[in-house]
Every structure is written in structure tokens, then in C-alpha cells.
Amino acid sequence: MSSVFEIADRLVRHAERRFPGQVALIVCYGSHMKGTATATSDLDIYYIPDPPAAAQNAAQKLCTQFVFDGLPYDLWPVRWSMLEDIARAEGERPWGLAASLLADARVIYARSDLERSRFHSLQMQLRETMQAPARGAMIERAGRALDKALTALGRMHMLAATDLAVEHDHTSAAHAFLQQIADALALLNQRAYSKNWGANHEEIMRMPLRPRGLDERFEKILHAANSVEVLQNAAMLAVEMRALIAANLPAYAQRVPPSEVLRDFYFVVLEYANKIGKACARNDRRAAEAAAVILHNETARTMARIEPGLEAGSALLYHEFAAGFIAARIPDLLHVAREGDLNALARAAARFDAGMLRYLQTHGVASNIFTDERDLQNFLDARAR
């Protein structure tokens, strides 16, 4: 009986023979690399076709799945860009699970020493995301994972509201929600999982920062007898995760100067102030209110980088990020829009515009307003330097 590594060697020789010079790396990862493999463990293996485009690289055909001696093998293509996203804890894949593609991976074939070094550099970059200097950025990314969990929670509510959904729909939606919660926990704690979804339950429950009663929440979301209890526990878990992320963000606030945050921002202010004014003039309350909400929120969230020095993701509630906006004493468009008086809203939008211009001038931020073409050309030339 051939070992999994003998089969891996065969795959390497096959790649070299059939696709010479078109594969940058072949990499093994998973339980065999971690030393936790059992007699039934498959070999996790991927390769990097280079160039990546299928039209330019026949090595895309190297992708294959088969069973040998009772064990499944999956040789699949990965792009450098995906590994770079994982190394930065970014991208669409849940980082807590995807990190295994780099964390304990081993290169079994490299086209050149340069590409081997590039891979090792990404492994080092991944390790840096788990160190103290990256703490603030990782907490912010946990907030983005929570955004995805909230989307999944919305799907759970949608399914509960229709008679067409079957048990399979509800089960799949619950798992999708919990996977994103687990990823938010991994990012918050700067700890990647060593096992796949489902098998990593103990790792999730050992996270130092986690909501109280997390195990019970998981159990009820997956196995409660009725949808009301499932949704209640999912909603409470989302609330608890939001509070946990928000509580850890302020310690890593980094205030950014207005000149950097609001560079070119007056364009947004003028654009939406004009939209509000035109909508009010034609008595279009919905359009006016929508533009007011966008302008107010965009400004408040942008100014959050100035004070309190945070990226205002959805993990933060308004009172947790709007200190800079409130201190600037700019009109509250949301309050006026809710009142429904369009004349008052048009006046408030004009005051908002004037208030932002004063704020920019006070803080030495150019508004980029020109009436002379020579001034405009000088501005364009300066930007091009």
C-alpha cells in the first residue's frame, strides 16, 4: 500500500512532466502536516498555476479529485492573490479556517527558490496577524465577519417567514450563521482553527474572548425544537458578539488628522447636499430622506477616524463612533429628516454644507473649490507630482 506522501510525489512528477514551468508551487497542508493524521485522513494538497489565467496556462487541468486505497485526494488550484488575502486576514473566505492553507503548510515542489521564499514570506505575514501589533486591525476584521453573520441571520429570519422552506434550509442557514460567528471569534482572538468546521467546536469554546454561555447558544441554534427559540438565541448571540467586539476596539483607537481623513471629502458633502435640496424642491420626501441619511452617516463614519479614532463598522453603534461628528456641531440631518418637514430639511442641508466648509477651513483641509481654470490646472498638476 502506498503512503499518502508517495502519492503526493507521484502528483509532483506528473505536474513536472505534463505541465513543465507552469506550476509555481505544490503545497501540502492539513492533518498530515500538523502530525494529527489518522489512518483514514486524506492528504490536503493544492498547487499554484502561474500564470493563473486558464487561457494562458494549461496547468489548470492538473486539478483533479480521486480515491486511492480508500482515501480521497483533492488536488486543487490556488492563486497567489488568495494566499495573500489569507496572510492579511482579508478576502471572502473565513480566515479562521482558511489560515490552515498557510499556517502548517509545507511546500513539496517549487519552480524556483524565489517562489518558495515568497510562500514562506506569506507564512511569516500570517504569523504577524496573530501578534500584538496587529490586534486593532484584527478586531476591526472581526467586525466585518460579524457583518456576514448578520446577513446570515437575516436569511434565517426570511426562511422562518415562509412556508416554502424545509428543514434542510433552516439547518444550512443556522450553520452558515454560526460559521461566521466562529470566524469573528477567531479574528477577535487572533487564533486560527486547526480543524475543519464542526470538528473545531472545542477550539471555538476555548477562545479566551467569547460570549458567556456560548456552548448553550450554539446548541439551541442548531437543535432547538422551534424556530422562535432558534432565532432568539441567534439574535442574542449576534448582540453579544457585537458588544464583545465594540468593547475591545477603543483600546486600539488610532486618531488620524483631519487633513488625511477629509482630503477630497467636500465633494461628497456638496453632492448630497444638492441631492437633498433638489428632492425637497420637488417635494420628494423619500429621495430627500435617503440622501440625508447617506450624507449624515457617511460624514459621521468618516469623522470617526478623527475622533474617537475608529473604523466605524457595523459592530459600533452610533453613540460609540459619532463623537467627532457631534463635537463639530454640524446639523443632525437624521433628526430633521424624520420630522418630515422638507423646507426645514433643505435649510438643514444648507447649514450642513456651510458647517463642513467651516470645519475644513478651521482644520486646514482644502475644499478643492475653484473658479479659475489656472488654479484648477495648478491643482491637477500638483496632484500628479
**Which segments are poorly predicted (pLDDT under 50) over 5 or more consecutive residues?**
none
Oligomer: single chain
Beta-strand residue percentage? 5-15%
Tell me the count of domains. 3
The count of β-strands is: 5
Mass-distribution shape: globular
Query: Biggest sheet, strands in spatial order?
Result: 3-4-2-1-5
What helical percentage do the residues reach? 55-70%
Structural class: alpha+beta
Based on CA atoms alone, the radius of gyration comes out at 26 Å
Largest sheet: 5 strands, mixed
**SSE order, one letter for each helix or strand:** HEHEEEHHHEHHHHHHHHHHHHHH
End-to-end Cα distance: 66 Å
Number of helices: 19
Average predicted confidence as pLDDT: 93
Model description:
The protein has 385 residues and is of the alpha+beta class. It has 3 domains: 4-129, 2-Layer Sandwich (Beta Polymerase, domain 2), CATH 3.30.460.10; 134-251; 258-384. It is 59% helix and 8% strand. It is built from 19 helices and 5 strands. It has helices at 4-18, 31-34, 80-87, 95-98, 100-103, 113-129, 135-160, 167-189, 201-205, 214-223, 227-248, 258-261, 266-281, 285-303, 318-321, 323-327, 333-339, 342-362, 373-384; strands spanning 23-29, 43-49, 64-68, 71-77, 106-110. Strands 3-4-2-1-5 form a 5-stranded mixed β-sheet, with helices on both faces. Helix 3 packs parallel to helix 6 (113-129), helix 7 packs antiparallel against helix 11 and helix 14 (285-303) runs antiparallel to helix 17. The mean pLDDT is 93.
